[in-house]
Amino acid sequence: MFKNESGTGADNRLDDAGIPLANKEEADINPDLIRREGFASEAEYRAYLATLGGEIPFDAYVAETVETSEGHALEGHLRELREELENLQARLQVIRRQAATVLTENARWADASAHAQLGDRPWLKLAGAMAAAFVVTRGLRRLPLGTVATAALPLAAAAINRKLARD
Q: Cα-atom radius of gyration of the chain, to the nearest Å?
């Protein structure tokens, strides 16, 4: 008699995920002892091993796997960071060149604008205007404006009264 190879026989059982079990021994395993996910901590792993009744060295197995995968992941991450740093440095160089260009163009524009408004030697004319403003301010500070304002106030009030009387 031939063995049923289609997988629908009575000996072919399915696990929780619907996958056919490989042999009858797996079918007899307590389903509460089968773990399909990882462990949250070493203590949880050791408790699981205690329920199975075996002792597997946790540190030797996990440390080797973590070192290898972390090493590759860290190298890849470090390589990505270096590439990003090079990209940012290149962008910074472009920005510096653009800033220098903007500054020189602004200086040229200001110079051309001053020449257009004030003619030849605009900076000399501006310096003369500033010196004249300084001299006039100093002269006004020396005038006795308090007495002038006191004398002019009655005259201004009389002029306002005459204007209001006409209206």
A: 47
